[in-house]
Amino acid sequence: MISGLQDRMKGKSAIANQYQAQNTQFYGSALDNITASPSPNNTQAGAQLLMNQQNRITTVAAAGDSVRLPPAIPGACMIVVNDAATNAANVWPSSQAQGGVTGGDRINALAQNGAFSLTVALGVTQFYCFSAGTWRTK
């Protein structure tokens, strides 16, 4: 397995699961067919962690089943789509214990550690971070 230092020495940069070889096109990572964590795990602590740049949820068995964003670090950007048949999924930010800022991350103007409801009607939702600890949506 090649370490991050060895990647950089070969002209590659790595951000989580995203790779770009020097002087080439940027490719992100994607995961399809995600199942949101069901009850009783549909809390911030039990939510399915999203690890890819593009994420497509296809199963939300009950409203409030959950996924979680990684810590909000400036420059980070993630796409999340809820393509489940009917139910909204909760998208949680990371808590302080999960690597978020002191007190926990937030999404938009929600309270720290508050869940964002990702309805089916929202379509593609982009989560992006300009300042540490805060995810914004588009």
Describe this structure in words.
- The longest helix is centred in the first third of the chain and has 6 residues, at 4-9.
- The strands form 3 sheets. This protein has a 6-stranded mixed beta sheet, with no helix packed on it. It has a 4-stranded mixed beta sheet with strand order 4-6-8-10, with no helix packed on it.
- The protein has a single domain (28-137), classed as Jelly Rolls (Sandwich), CATH 2.60.120.
- It is 4% helix and 38% strand.
- The chain is mainly β.
- It has 1 helix and 12 strands.
- Mean pLDDT is 86; it is low at 1-15.
Quick structural gist:
By secondary structure, this protein is mostly beta strands. The chain has one helix at 4-9; strands at 12-15, 18-21, 30-35, 48-49, 54-59, 66-68, 77-82, 89-92, 106-107, 116-118, 124-131, 134-137.
Write the layout of secondary structure elements.
Elements: H1 4-9, E1 12-15, E2 18-21, E3 30-35, E4 48-49, E5 54-59, E6 66-68, E7 77-82, E8 89-92, E9 106-107, E10 116-118, E11 124-131, E12 134-137
Parallel strand pairs: 3-5, 4-6, 5-7, 6-8, 9-12
Antiparallel strand pairs: 1-2, 7-11, 8-10, 11-12
Task: For the structure shown, list the relevant keywords.
1 helix; globular; Jelly Rolls; disordered N terminus; 6-stranded mixed sheet; mainly beta; 4-stranded mixed sheet; 138 residues
Rg over alpha carbons: 16 Å
Q: From the coordinates shown, what is the CATH architecture? A: Sandwich
CATH class membership: Mainly Beta
Strand content: 35-45%
Q: Element order, helices and strands?
A: HEEEEEEEEEEEE
Stretches where pLDDT is under 50 for at least 5 consecutive residues are 1-15
Shape: globular
Number of domains: 1
List the total number of helices.
1
Share of helical residues: under 10%
Under CATH, the topology is which?
Jelly Rolls
Structural class by secondary-structure content? mainly beta
If strands are numbered along the chain, what order do they take across the biggest sheet? 3-5-7-11-12-9
Tell me the span between the first and last alpha carbons. Answer: 36 Å
